Amino acid sequence: MDIVAHFQDLVAQVPEFLQPVIVALAGAVPFVEGEGATTIGILGGLNPVLAVAAAAIGNFLCVVVLVLLSSGARSAIVNRRTVHANAEEPVLAWSGTRPGSTPDETIRAMDENYATSDRKAARRAKFQRALDRYGVPGVSLLGPLLLPTQFTSTMLAGAGVGTARVLFWQGVAILAWSILFGVVVGGVVHNAG
């Protein structure tokens, strides 16, 4: 049984007051997200507004946790590299950086050294081109067409975009996509019934 069918069955089986919780949990799952969870909730009998709210909240809370973890990991790496760079070492052999290099240069050098496959490097380059072309708002709003918001938000945070900015635009995107699916699916269910 696939995960969407499992969540649909679960929504139908639990008491009405627990249904939004199940929809929120579904929203936290990559590839289900707010859009899929909204659909699950509406098809499970929830009011479309409640389904959208629960799905968006579940999706956003998962994104918040991932962005905070990614930002923290990036900060730890940058701080460690900066400490080593300030120690007057001639060259950091493991990263190829020089003392006094900026944290972004250090991260880029580390990324280049750890790019173990052409496929991984190509994906990173594709993401960077999209970020350069569309900015954080565009990547956030268009990202769900290609990748789950959990992946997009983690990549944005890892690229050094500010936490508040990532969370704001991911929140806007999650809400917009959840509302869009709520309107479409709610309209179809209403017209069919």
Notes on the structure:
With 193 residues, this protein is mainly α. 76% of the residues lie in helices and 0% in strands. The chain has one domain (3-192). It has helices at residues 3-13, 19-27, 33-43, 48-86, 103-114, 118-142, 149-158, 163-192. The longest helix is centred in the middle third of the chain and has 39 residues, at 48-86. The protein is elongated, with a radius of gyration of 20 Å. It is built from 8 helices and no strands. The protein starts with a helix and ends with a helix.
Mean pLDDT: 84
Helix content: over 70%
Could you describe the largest sheet, including whether it forms a barrel?
none
Note the run of SSEs as H and E.
Answer: HHHHHHHH
- CA-based gyration radius: 20 Å
Please give a handful of descriptors for the protein shown.
elongated; 8 helices; 193 residues; mainly alpha
Give a brief outline of the structure.
By secondary structure, the protein is mostly helical. 76% of the residues lie in helices and 0% in strands. It has one domain (3-192).
